[in-house]
Amino acid sequence: MLEAGDKAPDFDLATDTGRVSLASLKGKNVVLYFYPKDDTAGCTSEALQFSSEVEEFAKLGAVIIGVSKDSAASHAKFRKKHDLTVELAADTTGEIVEAYGAWVEKSMYGRKYMGVDRSTFLIDREGVVRDVWRKVKVPNHIKAVLTAAKALKEASPK
Fold it and tell me: Whole-structure pTM over 0.90, yes or no?
């Protein structure tokens, strides 16, 4: 399981505006968050909250990327419908979701199934994972990530 201090797995994923890779973001801090599905209540709330703080994260030299197994076309509709400003990447094969340990067994009403664990990774400018949040509850989560991003910026001002 990926933890703080580990090298972040590289990725190269489609977005609704092109492609994004971890290698292309070297030199920036990255907030990489995984969410289950476009346009569902919790995922919409999380995306809206991250979108509302894009400028604050940018001041800290950080970019925000949301990842789900939805297609880039689905992301485009989701972003347009809710006027989202975060970049959304499509991991339709689930390879990156698995590499980050966000593909987990879940249980609902006694039925077990595999799904995306709502989780967030703060990755530094060199591609090292600095903070990990798993089983994220949306209320107050973005504030915690912003606080960690501020601490990371202060620890390595450039």
Answer: yes
